[in-house]
Amino acid sequence: xxxxxxxxxxxxxxxxxxxxxxxxxxxxxxxxxxxxxxxxxxxxxxxxxxxxxxxxxxxxxxxxxxxxxxxxxxxxxxxxxxxxxxxxxxxxxxxxxxxxxxxxxxxxxxxxxxx
Amino acid sequence: xxxxxxxxxxxxxxxxxxxxxxxxxxxxxxxxxxxxxxxxxxxxxxxxxxxxxxxxxxxxxxxxxxxxxxxxxxxxxxxxxxxxxxxxxxxxxxxxxxxxxxxxxxxxxxxxxxx
Lengths: 115, 115
Fold this sequence. Notes:
The complex is a heterodimer of chains A (115) and B (115).
Chain A: E1 5-7, E2 10-13, E3 19-24, E4 31-37, E5 44-50, E6 53-57, E7 65-68, E8 75-79, E9 88-95, E10 105-106, E11 110-114
Parallel strand pairs in A: 2-11
Antiparallel strand pairs in A: 1-3, 3-8, 4-5, 4-9, 5-6, 7-8, 9-10, 9-11
Chain B: E1 4-7, E2 10-14, E3 19-25, E4 30-38, E5 45-50, E6 56-59, E7 62-67, E8 72-77, E9 86-96, E10 99-100, E11 104-105, E12 109-114
């Protein structure tokens, strides 16, 4: 395992199109998080999974956003009918539930540009 | 409502100097306070973390000072090096009945260390 992998690294899409991002966490990590980071800001929490269960969703996660983690492995984040305000870096992170002091391991993110 | 306030927004330090970044929080239920370091094009990486039962934690050139009564904590980087130039984020989370909640991040401090 070389860390958290996110694909694609960059995505340019036209307004109104749907996009899907993928995150492959560290294999033994049971928690997976999605954050959004805009320029000059800290990461903002979107949602997290413990195994395959989505346990919390931020109010930032509008109805156009959906996340899944089938079988508790990789996760996908889909944005429907993209808007220019969705342009951001989408970060995925994973952790062990009982090893919080080891911190989150973040991927390098997917940079979304909506034109 | 911003739960973790970070300052300054940017910081320029000479090589060999001390870099100090401050954070203040509002939620007294927070019990885990990490600092993350982010280089351009990369996800944040855990640098050092502290819990409120100690007032200071040191790892190499990095020290967290924690003031529970003031609800403040700070990162000190001793003997700052050009390679420390990055964006630093403080964060906090609380424990919900034995399960650690998601991290809430500050807005970040862009540190530049001049040779």
